[in-house]
User: What shape does this take?
Amino acid sequence: EIVMTQSPLSLPVTPGEPASISCRASQSLLHSNGHNYLDWYLQRPGQTPQLLIYLGSNRASGVPDRFSGSGAGTSFTLRIRRVEAEDVGVYYCVQTLQTWTFGQGTRVEIK
Amino acid sequence: EMQLVESGGGLVQPGGSLRLSCATSGFSFSSGWMHWVRQAPGKGLMGVSRINGDGSVTGYADSVKGRFTISRDNAKNTLFLHMDSLRVEDTAVYYCVRKMNTATWGQGTLVTVS
Assistant: This one.
């Protein structure tokens, strides 16, 4: 089973400032087709998770372009260019190469 | 509009069984992977199981392997999760998920093992 490790687990942010979350996998998520099987979700309080980024760096439909994903193999990063108040919640990375395994979650809150 | 509606949750004693269903509509159900994900109260997300479009390939989290069985009925556009030998730690909201370039989650069904 692939183990996903996120950092930090808590991230106080200032609106308008950038933020980033790291995610590491215990084995490579690079498929022979060239895609990295790593997604990012945001779960706002009381809601089901919303897909932000799929296959490492592709923004899902309707996701603002202030969100971006990067990385390959075992190391990935989600960046928010300028945090807005609506971005608070818990962010999860998830590997989709095998039966899904999620990181522990990063709680983003406004300072 | 894509819709996923879970049912079958409830209160069960340790060692008991439940079968969850996920009725779907609004997309080509048989054409892709489906997933079960759970979330224990106040905790993070955990992938439970997945199944490919024709049901020939399945996968399970280590913690449920040998106890849970995923299946699908493509004629009825329905996904199932049969859960045996339930444990207190299986208590969670169970979601079915369809993910392509977007992801659609059901509203979840609560399973309480106590």
About this structure: Chain A touches chain B at residues 1, 39, 41, 43, 48-51, 54, 58, 60-61, 90, 92, 94, 96, 98-105 (CB under 8 Å). The longest strand of chain A covers residues 19-25.
